[in-house]
Design goal:
Length: 133
């Protein structure tokens, strides 16, 4: 049930955004224990000066094609699962849309199950009305 916010510079065509979205989803399914029909993404395209990043900090060099993926997940994953996801994601993105691994940054945050309401004003992930992970 992750929700991913994808931030990149404005100017990419719709097909690029679709392929970026598809590659992310494939990596989530392949390596992050996400069911195939669980797809929630928000793509933010930023004007010049609105997406600020260091071109060399812990990686790089980063180009103007830099993309930030902020994954909000409903439960924690192991370090091994996260590492596999990072590798899988940059591999898929390198294939399509041709994004360099140095231009991919990922941040994963986790939440409690009762932090999610998918519809109807109910805590969709909590069966008994309690809280938990």
């Amino acid at each position: 049930m992750p929700l991913t916010r994808i931030s990149l510079a404005r100017g990419k065509p719709p097909e690029y955004l679709r392929v970026l979205s598809d590659s992310l989803h494939r990596a989530l399914v392949d390596a992050f224990e996400v069911p195939p029909d669980d797809r929630f993404q928000v793509i933010h395209q930023h004007e010049p000066g609105e997406l600020v990043f260091d071109r060399h900090y812990l990686g790089g060099p980063r180009s103007d094609d830099f993309v930030l993926f902020q994954v909000t997940a409903g439960r924690p994953r192991s370090t091994a699962t996260k590492a596999a996801f990072y590798r899988c994601l940059v591999g898929h993105l390198a294939e399509a849309p041709g994004l360099r691994p140095e231009d991919v940054m990922v941040v994963i945050s986790t939440t409690w199950l009762d932090d999610w309401s998918f519809a109807g004003g109910v805590a969709s992930m909590v069966q008994d009305g309690g809280t938990g992970r």
